[in-house]
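Practice record 12: protein with flavin mononucleotide.
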Amino acid sequence: MEHSKKSIADFRENYQLGMLELEDLKPNPIQQFEYWLNQAIQAQTKEPNAMTLATVDNSGRPSARIVLLKGLSPKGFVFYTNYESRKGKELAQNPYAALVFNWLDLERQVRIEGKVEKISPEESTQYYHSRPKGSQIGAWSSPQSQVISDRSILEENKEKYTNQFEGKATIPLPPFWGGYRLVPDKIEFWQGRSSRLHDRLLYTKKESKDWKIQRLAP
Ligand SMILES: Cc1cc2nc3c(=O)[nH]c(=O)nc-3n(C[C@H](O)[C@H](O)[C@H](O)COP(=O)(O)O)c2cc1C
C-alpha cells in the first residue's frame, strides 16, 4: 500500500504552455492584468476572479484568505467584505495588502501589492443591490470572523432579518459591509517555463506615475 502512494514531494509539473517577453507586455499593468484575466475566463478556469488577499496586523503578523475580485478599473482592484471582519480590522490597522491570483490551467500567477482604501458607500450600495436577496440577507446575518456558539445563530439571524426586511422594496446596505479598493504600486506577472526557469516580469509604479518593468529571476 505504502509503495503505491505518491508522496506530495513527487507531485511536480513541467510548465510549458507559454512564455512572457518584455515586448509582449502592455505598458500599463492593469491592462495586462485584464488581458490575462480574460484569457483565464476563456480557458474556463474555475472562479477566475478568486484571489488570495494577505493583510498584516499592527504587530506585523500576516493573515491570508481568498476573496473575489468584483471590480477592476485603472484605479485598482475592488473586493467586498465585512468591514468588522478580521481582514477589515487588519486593514484599519495597516492599509498595505497583497493579492495573489493563481490560474493553474494557464500556468500563471499574478502578485499585486499596494495600499487599500474603502470605496464610497454609494459604490458599495450599488454592488450590494446587484446581489441575490439571499446574499444581501446573509451579509446582515453573519458577524464575520466572530466566534459563534452554533450554526443556529446564523439561521436565527437569517430569519430575523428576512422578517425585518419583508415587503421592503430594497434591503439597506449594512453599515459594516462594503468594498475595498487595492491601489497597486507593484504587479508581477509569472508564467511557468520548463526546468523551473519561469518568466517573472514586475511592474513598479514610479514617482512620475508611469510604470517601470523589470525581469526577476525565478
Ligand atoms: C472562493 C472563495 C471566495 C470567497 N470570496 C469572499 C469574498 O468575496 N468576500 C469575503 O468577505 N469572503 C470571501 N470568502 C471567504 C474568505 O476566504 C474568509 O473566510 C472570510 O472573508 C473571513 O476572513 P477573515 O476572518 O480573515 O476576515 C471566499 C472564500 C472562498 C473560498
